[in-house]
Specification:
This protein is of the alpha+beta class. The protein folds into 2 domains: 16-334, 2-Layer Sandwich (BirA Bifunctional Protein, domain 2); 347-432, 3-Layer(aba) Sandwich (Rossmann fold), CATH 3.40.50. Helix content is 37%, strand content 20%. It has 15 helices and 16 strands. It has helices spanning 16-33, 48-51, 56-60, 80-90, 134-150, 163-172, 178-186, 193-203, 207-220, 229-237, 243-259, 325-334, 357-369, 383-392, 429-432, and strands at residues 37-38, 44-46, 63-66, 72-75, 98-107, 119-128, 156-162, 268-270, 284-290, 297-303, 318-324, 347-351, 374-376, 397-401, 410-415, 421-425. The strands form 3 sheets. The protein has an 8-stranded mixed beta sheet. The protein has a 5-stranded mixed beta sheet with strand order 13-12-14-15-16, sandwiched between helices. Strands 2-4-3 form a 3-stranded antiparallel beta sheet. Helix 7 runs antiparallel to helix 8 (193-203) and helix 8 (193-203) packs across helix 9 (207-220). The longest helix has 18 residues, at 16-33. It is elongated and about 90 Å long. It starts with 15 loop residues before the first helix and ends with a helix.
């Protein structure tokens, strides 16, 4: 064995593991400040949870196998179906609205690429039981708080749309197959111009309508700011939209009305090319994109009002989003905002004389009992080496035992950022800590 992980999997040695833990803690705290509570679900589920409930894209990427009990199961590729299963079993006892967040490890068998390995983690926010656009605004506002807490302030934009509006646009231009039309629109930014036109043709659009739609999408890229949204809505309505599409426009107007009081109006654009690939989205959809560099998609979500029913639960409006750990890491690293790792050590206890080793261990224990992070050298290294280790651990201070120039019961405290020193009696440790 060469010691490397399997293709599509990563090790996270220090300090990266600590940085990831810190980011999760910050995002978890942001969710809790917004009234979300945490849910955990299994890493393995019955295969049919995904084959009958999700779009083909997910199904093709499953890690599925038959377990020792003869059951056909899969490693979980996304959290939403599991969440819907849990709620469907608990619907009678859960007061509404339900606001859940999850931090889950997931697996998809796909070609590894920047921002997506075969094993990854996602931070999910979901609201169940709220039918109005207030839920979408709350989801977006909380995701903004979580991203900002992680260090991504100013690095992202939310692009929002409505699938009913997108379907109406397709129908007005002759689309006969909504699924093929959504697939074409979803790939607009990834497709060459001629490939996009060919996909629209397969969905039923004639050449003139396909070119008109392509030009529309080009003209509004990379999205329309809230102050310009009405002009876009008028332009879309002028081609003749059905009632469902007009309702989609009203939902978007509602989101925009609440975006400013929610503090996210400066982060939102209307983008008619956002439709999301998963089959269970029903109306509002949104994605976050990096505002610089290649404008990479960071995460997505939307409203899925019929999914709970598929798991035996009552009709329940729902919406949510998922933030992937690796796209967020790439965003933060690319902008110099990746954290250093574990929090710095507060105190490093240096023992100059071996006969004071027991007291050094006791000091560390006393500090830890008081809630202060502390450590000491287990290798018996020289004084200078211990000082270097304290600096490497980013300790705030060193407590030095056994220096010849001070009494045996005196501790020398050195501030490792300024070099300033002071002395104090060993008996005053609790007051000094």
């Amino acid at each position: 064995m060469d010691g490397a992980p399997l293709k599509g999997f990563r090790d996270y040695p220090p300090p990266d593991a600590g940085a990831r833990s810190l980011i999760r803690a910050r995002m978890r705290a942001a969710a809790r400040r917004s009234g979300f509570v945490e849910l955990e679900t299994p890493s393995v589920e019955a295969l049919d949870l995904f084959t009958t409930k999700s779009g083909e894209e997910i199904v093709r990427q499953l890690w599925d196998f038959t377990d020792k009990g003869g059951r056909h199961v899969a490693l979980v590729p996304e959290t939403t179906p599991s969440l819907a299963r849990v709620y469907g079993a608990r619907a009678k006892s859960e007061p509404l609205p339900v606001k859940w967040f999850t931090i889950s490890r997931l697996w998809r068998f796909e070609d590894p690429q920047a921002g997506r390995e075969r094993e990854f983690s996602q931070f999910n926010l979901d609201i169940l039981g709220a039918p109005g656009i207030e839920a979408e605004v709350e989801i977006l506002a909380t995701s903004a708080a979580a991203l900002d807490a992680a260090g991504a302030t100013g690095l992202y934009t939310f692009r929002i749309n409505d699938r009913a509006l997108a379907e109406g646009i397709g129908k007005a231009r002759g689309a006969r197959d909504a699924g093929l039309f959504f697939h074409a629109v979803d790939r607009f930014r990834k497709s060459a111009p001629q490939d996009f036109l060919a996909e629209l043709a397969r969905a039923g659009l004639g050449p003139d309508d396909a070119r008109d739609l392509q030009e529309l999408f080009r003209s509004v890229a990379p999205g329309v700011r809230p102050e310009d949204a009405e002009a876009l809505f008028e332009r879309l309505t002028s081609v003749g939209l059905d009632a469902g599409a007009r309702e989609g426009i009203e939902r978007l107007r509602g989101i925009l009305r609440l975006a400013e009081p929610a503090g996210i109006a400066n982060r939102i654009v209307i983008d008619p090319t956002v439709v999301r690939g998963l089959a269970y989205y029903t109306s509002s959809v949104f994605e976050a994109f990096a505002t610089s560099g290649d404008g990479r998609s960071l995460f997505g979500g939307g409203r899925y009002d019929h999914l709970i029913e598929l798991f035996g639960g009552p009709a329940t409006p729902a919406c949510g989003l998922a933030i992937g750990d690796q796209t967020l890491e790439n965003l933060l690293r690319g902008n110099g905002r990746w954290p250093e790792g574990e929090a710095p050590l507060d105190t490093y206890v240096i023992c100059v004389r071996e006969e004071l080793r027991a007291d050094a261990v006791r000091l560390v224990r006393e500090l830890r009992d008081e809630g202060v992070s502390a450590d000491t050298d287990p290798l018996g290294r020289a004084f200078a080496r211990q000082l270097r280790e304290a600096a490497r651990r980013r300790a705030r201070r060193a407590w030095i035992l056994g220096l010849k120039e001070v009494a045996p019961d005196v501790i020398v405290e050195r501030d490792l950022s300024t070099g300033a020193q002071r002395e104090f009696p060993r008996r005053e440790v609790r007051r000094s800590g």
